[in-house]
Design goal:
CATH superfamily of the largest domain in chain B: P-loop containing nucleotide triphosphate hydrolases
Helix content of chain B: 25-40%
Largest interface: A-B, 43 and 45 residues
Number of helices of chain A: 14
Distance between the termini of chain B: 41 Å
Distance between the termini of chain A: 32 Å
CATH class of the largest domain in chain B: Alpha Beta
Strand content of chain B: 15-25%
Number of helices of chain B: 15
Strand order of the largest sheet of chain A: 2-3-1-4-5-6
Oligomer: heterodimer
Pfam family, one (chain A): His_Phos_1
Order of helices and strands of chain B: EEHEHHEHEHHEEHEHEHEHHHHEHHEE
Enzyme class (chain A): hydrolase
Structural class of chain A: alpha/beta
Number of strands of chain A: 12
Number of domains of chain B: 2
CATH architecture of the largest domain in chain A: 3-Layer(aba) Sandwich
CATH superfamily of the largest domain in chain A: P-loop containing nucleotide triphosphate hydrolases
CATH architecture of the largest domain in chain B: 3-Layer(aba) Sandwich
Keywords (chain A): ATP-binding, Hydrolase, Kinase, Nucleotide-binding, Transferase
Helix content of chain A: 25-40%
EC number (chain A): 3.1.3.46
Organism (chain A): Dimargaris cristalligena
Radius of gyration of chain B: 24 Å
Strand content of chain A: 15-25%
Strand order of the largest sheet of chain B: 3-4-2-5-6-7
Order of helices and strands of chain A: EHEHHEHEHHEEHEHHEHEHHHEHEE
CATH class of the largest domain in chain A: Alpha Beta
Largest sheet of chain B: 6 strands, mixed
Structural class of chain B: alpha/beta
Shape of chain B: globular
Chain lengths: ~425, ~425
């Protein structure tokens, strides 16, 4: 990534307008496609400085002492972001705060542009009372700002008072000379001003595809294939008898967890996923982009064959599995890039079942649960198991349903690395099943 | 039909019904440019699309253009003719959309609320989703440039003196202004473009295709630049995809000559004052013989992109045509029947390749600097077809992309200009 392409996304909006949600999602998406991204949440600085539980009077603009403290937090977060751009070669920094006045935004712009960083304001405007209330209920009730045991009505009232303090001084973004995107009522209207750079246009496109309608995404690998049984990589083989049994059992389980809602099934163009989906009574799409990682010259070999015939490659792959590209084939990094349109479409869609392949589902799973690129190629996605992902405001619930149909284990742990890898980003998913090794 | 994002059992694009896109704006606001570019892009996406230019209907009806008086909305003499042209175009578009078309682009000024609600009414009755694209331009220099470069050369002004044509066209705008009503109804689906790409307002626009259209419009620009296509150098060793062989000696010679030819061409353009501030960027694939061809461009930024790799031949890797025919006769037959869509087992079709190139195309549209793309002929064919608006079906696999030629493409409002420059073999 070129030095000139650094972007600071500065969030703007009243409290409870989904700023943090947007900031986290954009961060996760960009990290997943391999762009160095980080969120700087001013609220976290404030909580560190003053301790968590502060009531609304802290946010009163007439409270001078508190205003001073809030400014101090804003500057500290900004300094940290600038340092991160410089030292850690950050590409997209997301500055998450209300930034509700023109003067505050000017200050941020001056400092950032002086460091040769493009500024893009992302403003979330919401005058639909029901959306605001839903956001307060969903998110703020669990906020660290309120201790356990406080009545929800008290919280809602205090939070509304906090919003009112900001409303008094709030100035919407009208700075025509700057780059901004303004989203009104979750995308019912979007104003895009002076976008420069492909990266910025991609962020805007991503934002336009987000929705907040609840839905579920089901993942299933194809049933056990003949190549799985033989321990061979790749190929385009048919299902094994046990795999066929799985394909027959799949419709029952899916309908049980769907509660009569609509569903669309996505498969790859390979026989084993098409055969696995064949008994499902829903509309189906085949995506070439969902085809399994191409193992190039190693296609059709067993791991033992690879170790013998390409010992160097075998070792290189263990060193850096995410970036290792099979001779004449693909790397995980390549797969992530080709899956990007799939992710974009998944964000737009409602209930989807993906019948996929091990490497492909790892990549998509990593997007939803924020796994690092180092960790991604080792995510466990066992055969004959359905995963149900339910995206939430801050994270994603995962449920796992294992079928009682035997299958070979295709998981291969990294012999060189212990499995204690760190996860990127600030968000922690509320998973019910740990899929890591 | 070209690059649908996926394949459905019925073969139709899955999550979009029929959509009418209606341009709105005063004359010389780039409406035709936008219509054409969008039409080209949607065709590429594999969406059956047709553009209906009201101007063409009018020219059919009134063969000889006299002057701006014709366009004066207050001119009652010409009102029936203008209405007839507008209605005929609308009839044709509705017929197209009811007959299996997916997107109709209606290119006209559509300046009044009354006419727009009439159109909307007719379209809604036919279950057609409508999105307006209004182009607003308050920057006089953009308008002037558009009149001078585009309008004054239109068919209407054949045989006119340039200055007369410009003056007449300005009158044409002037008589329309009092009748022009910008879109204000927030219940409509509309996209407003202000000064081309300075500001875009997207109101109540939902759905797969409309959101892609917005993404595309965000990347569209009209700044002059050139795009260069050159093939990869010759590789050494076996004729195999999986082997990913390096350049041969001849390949290295080619790479050096390519560098010389393009350097000379850039100097030539600079001397002519042709986009002098442009800095050439180079994109190659991640294949060895592709990025090695850029090895000698050490003073230009070079990017290796996986999505620029050639068609994966699948099970036919390393085989000659005769060998494929002998070994897989059925597949060979199927390939001859449809060489655009047929995919050899484990490989890719041209269609698959086109889908994978979409991000390259958007980024290429966005790029304001000159770009040299060094890639395999299959990739260059697809990219070239996009810029030329070639309907893919059977044509793409047969486009000639000779090895020792540097192709220069200059996008402009009505199509592209191209130039071929030989690359010496020695």
């Amino acid at each position: 990534m070129n030095h000139n392409n650094r972007v600071a996304c500065v969030m703007v909006g009243l409290p409870a307008r989904g700023k943090t949600y947007i900031a986290q999602k954009v961060c996760r998406y960009l990290q997943w496609v391999g762009i160095q991204t980080k969120v700087f949440n001013v609220g976290n600085y404030r909580r560190q400085l003053t301790g968590a539980q502060t009531d609304h009077s802290f946010f009163d603009p007439h409270n001078e002492e508190a205003s001073q403290l809030r400014l101090q937090c804003a500057i500290e977060a900004l300094n940290d972001m600038l340092r991160w751009f410089k030292k850690d070669h950050g590409v997209v920094g997301i500055y998450d705060a209300t930034n509700s006045t023109a003067s505050r935004r000017r200050l941020l712009r001056e400092r950032l542009e002086a460091a040769d960083i493009q500024v893009m304001f992302i403003e979330s405007v919401c005058d639909a009372e029901d959306i605001v209330l839903r956001n307060i209920m969903q998110v703020k009730l669990n906020s660290p700002d309120y201790a356990d045991g406080v009545e929800s009505e008290t919280i809602v009232n205090d939070f509304r008072a906090r919003i009112e303090h900001y409303e008094g001084v709030y100035e919407p973004v009208t700075e025509d000379e700057s780059t901004f995107v303004k989203m009104v009522n979750v995308g019912s209207k979007v104003i895009i001003n002076r976008i420069c750079g492909y990266l910025q246009s991609r962020v805007v496109y991503y934002l336009m595809n987000l929705h907040i309608v609840p839905r579920a995404i089901f993942f299933s690998r194809h049933g056990e294939s003949m190549y799985n049984v033989l321990g061979k990589l790749g190929g385009d083989s048919d299902l094994s008898p046990r795999g066929r049994k799985y394909s027959e059992a799949l419709p029952g389980l899916i309908s049980k967890h769907l509660d009569g809602q609509n569903l669309t099934v996505w498969t790859s163009t390979m026989r084993r996923t098409i055969q696995t989906g064949q008994h499902l009574p829903y509309p189906k799409l085949q995506w070439k982009a969902l085809d399994e990682l191409d193992a190039g010259v190693c296609d059709g070999l067993t791991y033992e064959d690879v170790e013998q015939q390409y010992p160097e490659d075998f070792a290189l792959r263990d060193d850096d599995k995410f970036n290792y590209r099979y001779r004449g084939g693909e790397s995980y990094r390549d797969v992530v890039l080709r899956l990007e349109p799939v992710i974009m479409e998944l964000e737009r869609q409602h209930n989807i079942l993906i019948v996929g392949h091990q490497a492909i589902l790892r990549c998509i799973y990593a997007y939803y649960l924020n796994y690092s690129h180092e960790e991604l190629p080792y995510i466990k996605i066992p055969l004959h198991t359905v995963l149900k992902l339910t995206p939430r405001a801050y994270g994603c619930d995962v449920e796992q349903y294992k079928f009682d149909i035997e299958a070979v284990d295709t998981y291969r742990a990294n012999p060189k690395r212990p499995s204690s890898l760190k996860r990127v980003g600030a968000h922690t998913p509320t998973t019910s099943a740990d899929l890591r090794a | 039909m070209a690059a649908q994002l996926y394949k459905t059992e019925s073969g139709r694009l899955f999550h979009a019904g029929a959509i009418a896109i209606i341009t709105v704006g005063l004359p010389a606001r780039g409406k035709t440019h936008i219509s054409r570019a969008l039409g080209r892009y949607l065709c590429w996406l594999g969406v059956p699309t047709q553009t209906f230019h009201v101007g063409q209907y009018r020219r059919k009806l009134v063969q000889k253009y006299s002057s701006h008086d014709f366009f004066d909305p207050a001119n009652e003499m010409t009102t029936p003719q203008r209405q007839q042209a507008a209605n005929e175009a609308l009839d044709d578009m509705i017929a197209f959309l009811l007959g299996g078309g997916q997107v109709g682009i209606y290119d006209g000024s559509n300046a009044t609320v009354e006419w727009r609600s009439h159109m909307l009414d007719r379209l809604q009755k036919n279950n057609i989703q409508t999105v307006f694209i209004e182009s607003v331009c308050n920057d006089e220099t953009i308008v002037d440039e558009n009149i001078r470069n585009v309008k004054a050369n239109s068919e209407d002004y054949r045989g006119w003196k340039l200055e007369d044509a410009i003056a007449d066209f300005k009158e044409r705008i002037k008589v329309t202004i009092p009748f022009y009503q910008t879109i204000e109804d927030e219940s409509l689906s509309y996209i407003k473009l202000i000064n081309v790409d300075q500001q875009i307002i997207v109101n109540n626009v939902q759905g797969f295709l409309p959101s892609r259209i917005v993404f595309y419009l965000m990347n569209l620009h009209t700044a002059p630049r050139a795009i260069y296509f050159a093939r990869n150098g010759y590789s050494s060793g076996e004729n195999s995809y999986k082997a990913d062989s390096p350049l041969s000696e001849e390949g290295h010679r080619y790479a050096k000559n390519l560098k010389q030819v393009i350097t000379k061409r850039l100097q030539e353009r600079e001397a002519q004052g042709d986009s002098p501030n442009n800095q050439l960027k180079i994109w190659t694939s991640t294949r060895c013989y592709s990025y090695s061809t850029a090895e000698y461009f050490n003073d230009h930024p070079v990017r290796h992109r996986k999505s620029l790799a050639e068609i994966n031949p699948g099970i036919c890797d390393g085989l000659t045509n005769a060998e494929i025919q002998a070994k897989y006769p059925d597949e060979y037959e199927a390939h001859l029947r449809d060489n655009y869509r047929h995919r050899y087992p484990r490989g890719e079709s041209y269609h698959d390749l086109a889908v994978r190139l979409e991000s390259v195309i958007l980024e290429l549209e966005h790029e304001k600097q000159d770009v040299l793309i060094i890639a395999h002929e299959s990739v260059l064919r697809c990219l070239y077809a996009y810029f030329r608006g070639i309907r893919p079906e059977r044509a793409i696999p047969d486009i000639a992309m000779p090895r020792n030629v540097l192709l220069e493409i200059r996008p402009s409002a009505y199509g592209i200009r191209e130039m071929k420059i030989g690359i010496p073999r020695e």
